[in-house]
Amino acid sequence: MKKNSVKIWAIYLLAAGSLMACGTQDIQTGNLNVIPLPQEIVETPSAAPFVINSSTTICYEEGNEKLAGTARMLAGYIKEVTGTEVKIGTKAGKNCIILKVDPSITHKEGYELNVSVDVITLTGATEAGVFYGCQTIHKALPITDGKALASLPAGTVKDFPQYNYRGFMIDVGRHFFPKEYLKELIDVMALHNINYFHWHLTEDQGWRIEIKKYPKLTEVGSYRKETITAPGSGKFDGTPVSGYYTQEDAKEIVAYAAERFITVIPEIDMPGHMLAALASYPELGCTGGPYETATKFGVFKEVLCGGNPQTLQFAKDVVNELMDIFPDAPYIHIGGDECPKAEWMKCPKCQAKIKELGLHDTEEHSKENQLQVYFMNEVEKEIAKRGKKMLAWDEILEGNPNPETTTVMAWTGIKASVKAAQLGHSTIVCPISHLYFSNPGYNRLKGISSVERVYMFEPQSEKLTPEEKKNIIGVQGCIWTEWTKDSVKMEWQMMPRIAALSELQWCNPERKDLNGFLKRLRHQMDLYELYGYHYKEDIEDVTISVKPKGQDGIAVVELNTFDNASVYYTLDGSEPTSESLRYTEPFMINRTTTIKARAIRNGRESNVTEETLTYNLATMHSITP
């Protein structure tokens, strides 16, 4: 963040009379280069900034309740970030932040922001566009903590998103999170211009949404007796897990998200991942049970019976209640992933249904896979009756679904999104390799490398033609909660990588610049800290880079942080402190040495980064055959 501190008398020369109430309080000026980076920013350094003080009024169009709600939220952001309490009204004048709608702006979520010394005018194509412009104001403000007045630099911003679907998924099936905490996570999504909350509501390990026609789903299926302690350990913690959302709870979450222009997409995963439902209603399975809500994680052979009419009716009843709870959701996600067919191969009802439908094994699709497609298509017809579309994971492609009616969420890899788009499906890209923030393999990446993996990912593969690329309608990050049962771990998995995700979703890929992003990341993380979020702190650690100098066995060492923080280091194996050597420029080593370094920011110490350079005859020499 750029901070320019000036005395109030200097501002008088440019805006005499408008700031009389400010006394001699200092002013700090923010920066319009926020995350996600707007499409176009033009600053006017020679012009005076707009200073926010207690006389500032946020003005909105009278009678527009959505703008009124956004004005209240912006006032709250300003209070939290700067300590200044502003007014809200409908009559515009000087010292105003004016919110208005102009449908002539091209993109429905686009906005234009004009900042001058007297007024800020924020115009959106829709109320959603105004909201995203308010988020830009929110993130452009300097964090003053009431010790100085905040101002925004004079200039203009013209902005709109790259993708219409900008999603984040949270799994509450494995571990339950209370509705008040989900609201906090929705606020995190809003901070990053995310507009879809994909709510994964059911799993083998727990059913989390009330379905009134099937009360046992929550009476029985929302409970498991214990949980495995680690992958493959065979040991269990003996601690029961339970919890579910009433339909009123869910409607409350939907309303809270809608105020922030976020649409909630519910998911009931079927016909696999259904052990909690089978424990509640064993007659829905191929064998009739008994079944138990899963205490381990993985893929289970016990799935809904694909040939039982009662099971299909159950699925239709559930999605109909879902559509009542989520009336504004354009999609209903019905999963379709990881459904083993071993039980279907033995089940008389499934095999009878296969025969009735005239299904046969083909080179590409088994008859059981085709039975799943039939099952999903029947559910989809129920969804289509209500004017909605079906969303499903990319395994749905194993049965050749209709691209006109099925939107694919491609998670298994980049090949899946390429295949889905080539087949003509509207496709949301969320590969496990880059955008599963809870994946234990990729979570081993630390610091800048973990952010870089997300930031440098390109959702539109070069294997797609320009026409096929149009089928990539969105990008999504996901958190699965097998090993995530508290808010701290939830948040460090999200942050700061969700900032990189937001740039994938919003920004022009031609402007992608990791170094520029990292420079802007510091302020975003300061906002996380202000709001009490737990970001993954290894992003603040020092990066040690060692390179050879010439052919003399000399190593050149560089110590860097993403935000150019003060770095202290030692070469004798001792722990670095603020009294140690301060890094100012690259230095050279020509012997076995242990380098230890840590960054210190406003008295807060990072973890120690350590690297030992062991010398022998080959060290720092090129290898020749």
TrEMBL record:
Superkingdom of source: Bacteria
Cellular component terms (Gene Ontology): membrane
Alphabetic keyword roster: Glycosidase, Hydrolase, Signal
InterPro entries noted in UniProt: Beta_hexosaminidase_sua/sub, Fn3_assoc_repeat, GH, Glyco_hydro_20_cat, Hex-like_dom2, HEX_bac_N
Domain Beta-hexosaminidase bacterial type N-terminal: 32-159
UniProt-annotated catalytic positions: 338
Entry-linked SUPFAM superfamilies: (Trans)glycosidases (SSF51445), beta-N-acetylhexosaminidase-like domain (SSF55545)
GO molecular function, a single term: beta-N-acetylhexosaminidase activity
PROSITE patterns: PROKAR_LIPOPROTEIN
Catalytic activities: Hydrolysis of terminal non-reducing N-acetyl-D-hexosamine residues in N-acetyl-beta-D-hexosaminides
Documented EC number(s): 3.2.1.52
Glycoside hydrolase family 20 catalytic domain span: 163-507
GO biological process assignments: carbohydrate metabolic process; glycosaminoglycan metabolic process
Pfam families per UniProt: Fn3_assoc, Glyco_hydro_20, Glyco_hydro_20b
Span of the signal peptide: 1-21
Uppermost EC category: hydrolase
Family membership: Belongs to the glycosyl hydrolase 20 family.
Name of the protein in its database record: beta-N-acetylhexosaminidase
Species of provenance: Bacteroides cellulosilyticus CL02T12C19
Lineage start: Bacteria, Pseudomonadati, Bacteroidota, Bacteroidia, Bacteroidales
